[in-house]
## 1
Amino acid sequence: MSVVTLKINDIDVAVEAGTTLLDAAKEAGVRIPTLCHLDGVSDVGACRLCLVQIEGIPKLLPACVTEATEGMNVTTETPELQEYRRMVVEMLFAEGNHVCAVCVANEHCELQDVAIEVGMDHTRFTYRFPEREVDISHPQFGIDHNRCILCTRCVRVCDEIEGAHVWDVSGRGPAAKVITGLNQPWGDVDACTACGKCVDACPTGSIFRKGTTVAEIDRDRGKLDFLVTAREEKKWTR
Amino acid sequence: MAKTVVIDPVTRIEGHAKISIFLNDAGDVDDARFHVVEFRGFEKFCEGRPMFEMAGITARICGICPVSHLLASAKTGDKILAVQVPPAGEKLRRLMNLAQITQSHALSFFHLSSPDFLLGWDSDPAKRNVFGLMAADPELARAGIRLRQFGQTIIELLGAKKIHAAWAVPGGVRSPLSEEGRQWIVDRLPESRQTIETALGLFKQLIDDTLKSEIDIFGKFDSLFMSLVAPDGTWEHYGGHIRFVDSQGNIVADGLREEDYQDFLGEAVERWSYLKFPYYKPMGYPDGMYRVGPLARLNVCDRMGTPDADRELQEFRDRAGGRCATSSFMYHYARLIEILAAIERIEQYMEDPDLLSPRCRSKADINALEGVGVSEAPRGTLFHHYNVDENGSIKKVNLIIATGQNNLAMNETVKQIAQHYIHTNEIPEGMLNRVEAGIRNFDPCLSCSTHAVGQMPLHVQLLSSDRQVLDEVYRE
């Protein structure tokens, strides 16, 4: 096992080769905000919230998909990074229809938490108010595309942990959306095992259990982590 | 030349509205109209939402009476789930509605209307508000504010938030009352009862003396009255059935079910207001004018169902000179009696162990595609009507709001007051205040915003019959 040493915000840290900067930062006790990252599934670098500055590299890189290398000097907090992160969150809010006051995930929402963390109190961008649908054809679950931020956690958790691959992404640009099956109503997709991992994975109130009312969403994030660890290390107790 | 006087905005009401007074060539009032100039669109944008979210969404219609929408919506949801709400769930919902009636009526009386009664119709408009009341009678103002706080805190103890607690849900409520919460209510009950008894005593003195003439001028006319009533005719605010009585107290229709509201309620539309004009269908428009709210509930019921409120109801009817009070000014009096009734019922509930029971929510899937729910909001009977698809997605929403049902009566009241007080093109501010007060009788809730404090912003326009502005005065 080879070890690399690097500096994150002037803190010396030694991690296993192949470790991402996000994990290395965690090791160093440095918090980097994320939205598309989910412990237990692969990273895709979709949300751009975890952008960091690396000495000698002219562009900002996402910490979740960048490997730590020997001698790296990483900075996670600069006025420029803070500005970018805030802008990313503002764009997410302007892009969808996020109405916290009547959302099932109010006060249990990672998008809301991140908005508070980056100091977003309004958005500088014009709200797009897109016309998006709500699919509650599944007997147990529903998806409200108005609240989707396209983090693709549902896609990855269903594919990598459950192995059902019900979820995918269709379309490009403003037309991009997560779909179930071959863009069928969720209730018509035979591949869905109704395991509920997508509900646990969703950072916002986009995927929810039917019957959930305002601010009532209940997730079991630990379950996803547990399943991955259990499979890899054969530890089947929680 | 015929002229129009416009009062815009109407102040110390909840929402935005204006009044137009049409003068004839002689300078007398021909007609008066109460226009609601705000547009919300809830019925449209709720389409497509999951039914379970409706209580939380529709509660946002109003910041003063969100509980009313919460309850009407949850009751509609009960019908769509086709479930029986556990006894604890119903009692807890009732407790929240009693708290809501207390806080909303306290706001209407102490904060919004009492400055007119206690400081005078013609007093300085800059001081004719709750702050003026604080200066003139700090004890009464403090007691009134604390009475409202009593109601609001009960709502918070139950739903974790004073405003927009998304606590009542289809099938019941989310959580019971805690023992600490119950104790808080028990501790504050004596003070609240004392406040309402003082206020009732004060108001009765005023209408027997200085405000006596207002009873005949501020909207005294015959109309129907509609409200919920318990199966045995007792005052009701949550369940029971719908009853109509006429001005003499004769029962016009009884045992009506909310599901059939379209059979007995029609909704007319006028081009000059966003607020519809509901009417009692068998009598046609506009003859089917009816009033809802505190006055209607007292006129409709046979008894209040609690000792002190029953005694007050008898005195109320004696003052009205019959079974029904027909003056809209009596809304204020009825409101105070309802606070007393609510406090008495809250006192009775404090002994009920069901309020602490966690078995307060029934869960089910979509079992019916249509539901109508009804509750008595502080301002009157509130209907929610949803159609859903088999997944529970909202297809159609119809909301009949209490204030809307008083629309015809509010217009009649404004006209009566304007005709009594306005006879020339010179209109003193105090006269306009009386016209506005006609609207405040009904404590209309036009949306979430209030104009409860500060100087009264007023825009008066004099318009000729061809709508040319002849003169206008602004007061910022």
Note: Confidence is low (pLDDT under 50) at residues 447-460 of chain B.
## 2
Amino acid sequence: MSLVIVDTGVANLSSVKFAFDRLGVDATISDNAETITQAERVILPGVGAAPYAMKRINAKGLTPVLQSLTQPVMGICLGMQLIFETLEEGGSPVKGLGLVPGTITELDTKNQPSPHMGWNTLTKRSDDILLEGINDNDYAYFVHSFAAPVSNITLASSEYGEKFSAIVRHKNVYGCQFHPERSSRVGAKILENFLKVPA
Amino acid sequence: MLARRIIPCLDVRDGRVVKGVQFRNHEDVGGIVDLALRYAAEGADELVFYDITASVDDRTVSPDWVSKVSRSIDIPFSVAGGIKTVEAAGARLASGADKISINSPALARPELINELCDAYGRQCVVVGIDTFEENGTYRVKSHTGDPDKTRETGRKTLDWAAEAAERGAGEIVLNCMNQDGVRKGYDIKQLSAVREVCAVPLIASGGAGATEHFEDVFKQANVDGALAASVFHKSVIAIPDLKRDLKARGIEIRL
């Protein structure tokens, strides 16, 4: 299985690579258009601020490359947010990659501490191969201040102040708001399932 | 629901995990990766590594154990000690640390918090505060890794916690020095006071000695996580037992 972790220039890449190492998959970290296009699976990681991340992706010329992918793709954390059409972060809205429909908005934590940081429970909303072996109330590790509202592409939701999308899927593109690489057994299972998604 | 976090803290000196009482008289308690794996397997929600020699020795390179830990465990961890620049923080994050925690360097130059937040996002910026009570006032100390170099900062704890969050800290770890290593319970009063002024996640540190102490700090001070070292290193409390007991007492806990 060839798997590429897209080097966006902003992400914590090695922890995602190590997670696949633990599953026996030697992931390649790359920002090369051809390498990304030819991979059987593509991971779009990301941490930090969305406007800066989109700027870096555009500067590397990767936007059209990522928009043309037809193999299974997974965005993780900020990478999940970048796959949406619009990102309402940092004053004026930023254009995302638009791989899935919708807008990322600030999470309303209802006076609870922000960012939403720690282990929170998943609630399944739709069946998918990615969720095999995952049960309601399994915990995943989140750290974020923005989120995708629940919509018809939501596979699993979580709640902190308000409900939001923990996992989405639109066609070949998945997004995980939490960090599967840091979500112990549950996260490892989700990454393992991602490897089994039919191409 | 968001779970309260149980966070073993590993003080690292010269590549080994050590523990002292009130920051003094350190004894060796094990290898870094061995302990990290043990705690992850036991159900720790997160780990914190404090390189306690770093700040006083001016070291800024990412230690090689950071990537070894990241390779080994599948729970989040933060790294503290000697991070004075955006580059030094970036090196640790690139090695696989999920968060970096700064203490003395933030006191010396508070703009560092803003710079780290701008560069990597507030979700990976933790500010550690070593605080002690004196005549009813909470005050901040720096360079606590070495008792001979510990300094008073002239800052009040509540002000500094609020300022750190305002500048872009994504989390505050409050280490109450009067309680550290003596296992008499967390400083509920002080943590509650900081909770009031702190809009970001707050982690309690210093004083854990029994299951009741964890229960009290979650229920009374409403902290997001509780950090402890000696009770875990010396197997006074087993993490699986602790988490099961806390859940039975009505606290949201990941089992």
Note: The radius of gyration of chain B is 16 Å.
